[in-house]
Amino acid sequence: MTGFTELLRAGMEERIVSTRIGKNDAGKTLLSFLSGRFRYHGEDGWRRLVAEGLIGINGEAATQDRALAEGDLVSYDTSGLPEPAVDAKFAILHEDADHLVIEKSGDLPVHPSGPFFKNTLWWLLRQKHQSVHIMTRLDRESSGIVVVAKNPSAAAKFAKANAAGLVRKKYLAIVSGSFPEGIFLASGTLSRREDSTVRKKLFFEGDMLPLSGVGEERTGEQKDSAGAVEAKTILRRLSSAGGISAVEAELLTGRTHQIRATLNSLSYPIVGDKLYGVDDSLYLKFAAGGLDERDYGRLGARRQMLHSHKISFPSSDGGRLELVSGPPEDMLGLLDRLDTRLGCIGNADESS
User: Which residues pair with 172 in a beta bridge?
Assistant: First the structure.
């Protein structure tokens, strides 16, 4: 539920999500708020869920015509809802007393969100590990490396190292267009726009300049008065042919959708990206379960071609861990068209 916050109860078997009513939504009826803000069910769907007693306000049962006040807590019991199928495959690249480094598929949510709870990497890991702290974000349709801390102390150390710029993350993206040859720093801000068709879509505003002579300082959370956050990404072309390019991206800041939004705003959208691709109305159609083969043909792939390829971070023994994940099968077909070899992807450190 985009905009809802998770509340996990009763040994994680009951899943309640909630959202707080702000000033702009005060005075609306419960039904108009839900159907206007969360469009994945539609008005009839929300009406049915309210009638079934699955929607509450401030911990009490509610009716669809109930007027909302600022500060009201709207809750949604999603415990019994069926979850969409996913590709639950993942592999353990590394395990020690403090960390798990996971390689996940390109159709597996990491955290509980929306209709996903048990069909997530977090839940699957919880079946074996008592403490699971996901330390690196990765979208459902992005494949590759995810770092997991196995205890609160390791999670705190990783977060501190990340804030200090000691965690390095590199991604492989296949994008539309002929990306320029060379290594560049895309530096600017990410923010939302009021006129966007999709509320959560972000837009990058900034420049892409040759990296030579430009610093690579990693920065923490910085926002301007309009809520925009600083975003810096190193971009390097690996290969380009036939209207698509393989690009390596290294994060200098870690923002939600940073690589996807940056490449899209620079006119090199990631192949298969439903939100930041050829037409973001396809994302709304996808959320409603309505994409057809013609739509996938426009997208160029069935999921976004973004892979978390390489990560390095301080290890528990004072050294550094460095892990590499090769592209999955669905990316290899496109990479073969580009004549991109895994060896040139692996030599990123010498170029950046």
Answer: 248, 307
